[in-house]
Amino acid sequence: MYFDDEDRLELQILAGGNIVEHAPVFSPDGRFMFVRCLTNVQVYATSTGELTRILDDATAPLISLELDLKQPELLIGCTSTGELVRWNWRAGVLKKTVALKLGSGDTTVLTCHLMNLYKGGDTACAFVTTKRKSGDQVNWFVVNTCTGEKIDVNCGLKLKVRTPLVDVGKGEFKYIVLAQGFYIYFVNYVTWKFCRYKSAHKQTVTCVRMSPCEKVAAIGDSNGKIFVWRDFEQKKTMTSTLFHWHSLEVTSLAFSPSGASIYSGGHETVLVKWSITTPENRTYLPRMSNVIRHIVVSNDNETVLVCTEDNAIQLITGSSCQIKSTVQHFTYETKNKTGLGKFPLGLRLNPRTNTLVLNGRSGHLQFYSAYTKSMLYNLRVVDTNFRSEEENHIIYNTRITRAAFNINWMATGEVYNDMESFAEVRLKFWHYNEKLQSYILNTEIDLPHEHGFKDIIFSNQFQVDNLRCATAGEDNVIKVWGLTDSENIYKRGSMWCCLAQTSYRNLPIGSLCFSQDGSLLAVGYGNILALYDARNPRLPLQTLSCPPGLDGVISKAQLRLAQNPLNGARKELTQQRQQLWALLKTLLNSNDEKLVNQAKDLIVGPPAKATLMNQPENGSKESVFRYIMKMPELGLHQKLQLLRRFGVECSVSHAHRNRLMEHLQQRALIPQATRLRLRKLDARLHRLHTRHRYKAKQRLSHLTRRRQNFEDLVPQDVMNLFSVLKIDESSKPRKEDAKNKSKLDESSKGTPKVKRIPAKAAPLQGLAQISQVQFGAGDQAHLVAVCTESRVLIWNLLTLRLQAGLKLSVRQLAFDPLTNLMAVITKNDELHVFQPNVPLPLYQRSNLPKTYGLAWLPRRQPKQSSINVDWQAQSTLLMLTHSQEIAYLAPPGQSPSDDAPAPISFAQSAATENLLKHATFGIHVTKQQQASTESLERSGPLIVGRGEHSAVNAFVNLSAHTMPAMSLICSEFVKSLVTPADSTLRHLSKSGEDAPLTNGGSVNGNGLLHGHSDDVLENEELAEEGEATGSTLDTRKTLLEQNEKLEDLLPEGELDQQTLDHRLKTITSLRTKLKL
């Protein structure tokens, strides 16, 4: 597909920067903290958590950030490319950039730590570790941060391949502690002597930390143990103390400034404070938001900073261990072992505040404002506790898989499925509370569907009356929910209940969508689009299916053979293709059964013979056979294929072969009686009590699953296994001796002949599965877009015909009701933007990152340009990428938050003109307004149509598929076009009242001035003008007197606060007393 190379839009990041990848740094007084986010340094106030400054002068990701010991206002950072950046963080000014001279070639800097060592410069020297490429040994250097030159050091320390964990002591005891795997190194950077140790039981070291005022080091390992090392210069005098509470690995350690306490954190989401002298005395801060990643303590011991893996920084008081503030950016979903998607909800838009909603912490929804680039809040939806990860176990938590939003309501679907027991499914409806400014749970339904949800959608985003909600489940059932009176005698109100449910041929549901007015419900069942009446969705009104071939699935076989032999093709394959092509030509004109069987043998054919390895001798074949058969990770089919590669042939005896074929024929397919029995049992489950229904349903589902697995296993694995063992009809019989053949013939006389199952090839025809359904809006409300595996089909509901089709394999779709634009992301990571009525692409882009979801964000101030010129004039397209970032396409330097708020307009323009006349600079404004009114009077206002007849607009804008019969609306429509006599008189009087605004002349509908009018109206207008001028003169005199009094009160210098307050009170009292 062709893409325009001259694309002026760039992919920019709106939110999602990782602020917890590296440990933050406190200022010397603890009032500010410095956070690294890729190439930026963000400065926050610790008291309020507010962002105060951003330092963005680095050209590559920062891997370290520290304050100089002698110059605390100097902030030094090091990038991964070996560039030192120095800022004066108080002034926000870049001081200097220095390139490290680490040798020739591409070198990646792994770590960089400042030392309490000054040699030939005003800043401290740094301990740097580098690596050229993966697999190489890690090198270390001592670098002068002023010049970037290496400093020669006489030390025999050699590091291994892994990225080291490094910490540097900057107090009285100048030591460097390093850890690689289970090796621990202590280096004295004054004498440059080092010693090496191994961790207890050779456990992997996960974090290291040096004490700021003692010769003490704390080391945590993967078993959750913390060892405090003392006197580690010599192995004879070295001692270690065990601190053990964590059950999983220790992720972070931190000493208090006095060295009397240690803070530790891990996967248990608990912050533990230890006493260095008595390990038994410890305090806890449980239920942190997520796994603790970094812990930093301020120099005054007043604030403890904790970074959690959900991209949050929590500031905790050091004395009472209470959370005082939180810095929360875009919330990250933590890694787990389940293999499930991180964002099953995708990217949603809350129509109430135009905020983005997506999955956040486990069991939470996060609401993010793209206008202010701030996290509003995390809403806890799941009531169960969060289960932390365990070693050698897969832990499942309840996940929010679907959600839908209305201006007053929110519906969420949560599923807990541990792949062993029956899935727990809950549907919750939340109502927005104005006082609390949050959502409150209104209704909770247990097990609305089986195994989970496919989709949840409201009938209208802004409608409150007659609101409906439709849910589709994995059980191929659609349920429609509505508001009814609550049955609770203790709390009256409204609640949600099921109004109707439906299904269609037990076909799987791909997607569902309501029309713009909520009257129709479109559901995609397999390859069929069904249309329901939203008020009574018992039976579909219409079912639409695409003709064969147009939905992306061909109904005929296509065979393409190269005319010329390909380079490297084997001769036997070329001959087989030529024979097949000749047979197919003759098959088109004849129905000979011999030719059909011959073509079938050529199509199915024997299994392809792979190239044999170096065949071992006959004596070593047995050892090869035993070794391969002992491999537990391989299946039987894989073992047999591997044996054939080594030239070891396997076969099955004739008697066992017949018994196996009989058994397979009897149980290859489920008999009809068994299917009917399973259906009857499923129907009887609804008669059981709720207490016994779940257990019976679980047993029945296990039985159905086992039968289905066996049915799927036969054509996939068993038939392939038979072809390897040469049991099927497509394989050639093995050559046997005449004696053995006669014995087999005699033994086979008594056994009946068994009909063999043929090896079936892949099917040539299938059904297209609908994945997305979307209605149009406004004048395109009669169009429905349907997405299959390889097509986008546009249906016209007025003609019930297929209007257009696009050859796109859509993975995600987003619709903008303001502009009728549809944005789709294909499986090849391509973006296409089009309208359903004219499916020609307005914008195309390739090489996009992998995305989880799309959403259109309306602009606060739309642009006055056509969508053909700027397709993002009304709304901005946002994408949730796989790197957990929200991205958008815009020209360089522009973001969705740059839109100015909508201007405020007042209806009474005459009153504002009178007020502006007496203002200080109001005369200049009134002159401009008079000039604009004079230009309007000369040309006359352009009036198109009749403003009173809103029925015409309502009739034209009415959706075509929801329009009632013409016999019902014809009489009312004609009556609305007739103008009564009273309205004409009111229109004439209104034109007379507006005469002073047009210099005494009244303007008719065509913009022409009337030359004469009634004398009575002129007298009334003159009287009104006299009263108005008298009142304006009195008002002007009063305002001038008060203005002179205020000017006398003005001092020559600056005004104090009391004088300003007095003036403000005087002005407000005048504005309330005078009635202009």
UniProtKB/TrEMBL annotation:
Ranges for the WD repeats: 243-284
Residues covered by the WD repeat-containing protein 75 second beta-propeller domain: 349-549, 768-884
Residue ranges of the TM segments: none
GO terms of molecular function: RNA binding
Keywords: Nucleus, Repeat, Ribosome biogenesis, rRNA processing, Transcription, WD repeat
Region (Disordered) location: 732-755, 989-1012
Protein name per its UniProtKB record: WD repeat-containing protein 75 second beta-propeller domain-containing protein
